[in-house]
Write a structure and sequence with these properties.
Beta Polymerase, domain 2
């Protein structure tokens, strides 16, 4: 997960210039269209952007575009739906922060979508949503999909999705994205709990790398979620004519979820910071324990080395130098001194 994308390629270009900012991709841009109403639902997969258009009747159209790296496709969709050039520029820029723009005849919403892959890795992509009177456009960066439950509800006709307008469809898409935040945070919470156990039991240099990795991930998640509070709050209080009052209640519920997610993120960040403090304390404690043992060993051998150094001097006139029992007596004295100091240290609980 890159915290900063390279934006230098846009330096000096006029506003509204379409330049893709993000990972380079060569896949073909794909389209999925759901045309639905109370009577039924039709699912299409057109091959060209010029085949996309707003509905002519009162039904609702949801157009999902997988891939924003082809600026020609974005220009064609912009002409079909009369989208502002600055809006198209923001879609091509995958380094946007969550935001809500009001273009009078339609809303533009940018949100970060996070999900867990099969390898239990966090996949992050930008999703841009355009809400019109009776249509919703969704632009996904790389096609990582969390909208499958929404598609199943449209196909099966369950719930109030078919009976409602495009504003309720926008809520359903945003709610599906926000629900995935809980799954990601639950996964990260489990990793942090295991990390704390490792930090206390057996801290290693690899543990420090894992702590820094989790801090980086939480920083990215926080940057992606934190502005979403204001976006949901503004959306639930908007005076947009095609945003019904009944739907605003659902957006307020999403706002409550986002506040809860922000609180969870802050708690996890504090847990990671505490894990780092515990790691440093554990490493310092282990180092102090090793130094204490080495200090005790050195202290015990200091008087023994002193005795040995005295009797290692080769002077001719020294006491016990030619005594028959001199050597064993010195060894016994050194043993007694060493054991006495060891017992003293044990009594003082220095060992």
């Amino acid at each position: 997960m890159k915290l900063v994308q390279q934006r230098s390629k846009k330096t000096g270009l006029p506003p509204g210039t379409l330049v893709h900012i993000g990972e380079r991709r060569t896949e073909k841009v794909t389209f999925t269209v759901f045309h639905y109403g109370p009577a039924g639902c039709e699912e299409l997969q057109p091959h060209q952007a010029n085949q996309l258009a707003p509905p002519a009747d009162e039904s609702v159209v949801w157009i999902n575009v997988s891939g924003v790296h082809n600026v020609e496709v974005l220009e064609a969709i912009g002409k079909q739906f009369v989208l502002h050039p600055l809006l198209l520029e923001d879609i091509a820029n995958t380094d946007q922060r969550p935001k809500l723009d009001d273009y009078e005849t339609y809303f533009f919403l940018v949100i970060k979508m996070m999900s867990l892959t099969d390898r239990k890795e966090i996949a992050v992509e930008q999703v841009s949503l355009v809400l019109g009177r009776n249509y919703v456009l969704s632009f996904q960066e790389n096609g990582t999909d969390v909208f499958q439950p929404v598609r199943e509800r449209l196909r099966g006709g369950k719930g109030r999705l078919r009976q409602s307008g495009a504003d309720y469809l926008l809520y359903a898409l945003v709610d599906a994205i926000v629900d995935q935040y809980f799954a990601v945070l639950e996964f990260m919470g489990e990793k942090i709990e295991l990390l704390q156990q490792t930090v206390v039991a057996d801290p290693k240099p690899e543990t420090l790398n894992e702590i820094h990795g989790l801090k980086r991930q939480l920083l990215f998640v926080r940057r992606a979620v934190w502005p979403l509070r204001d976006v949901m709050n503004n959306l639930s209080r908007s005076d947009c004519p095609f945003l019904q009052e009944a739907t605003k209640l659902f957006f307020r519920d999403v706002y409550d979820h986002v506040v809860q997610i922000v609180d969870t993120i802050e708690t996890l960040r504090e847990m990671v910071s505490a894990s780092l403090d515990i790691y440093l304390s554990s490493v310092s404690y282990r180092l102090n324990a090793v130094m204490r043992v080495l200090t005790v060993i050195t202290t015990i051998f200091m008087p023994l080395s002193f005795i040995a150094s005295i009797y290692g001097m080769n002077f001719e006139h020294m006491p016990e130098l030619k005594s028959t029992w001199g050597y064993p007596i010195v060894l016994v004295a050194m043993t007694v001194v060493g054991l006495g100091m060891l017992i003293l240290f044990r009594n003082k609980r220095w060992l």
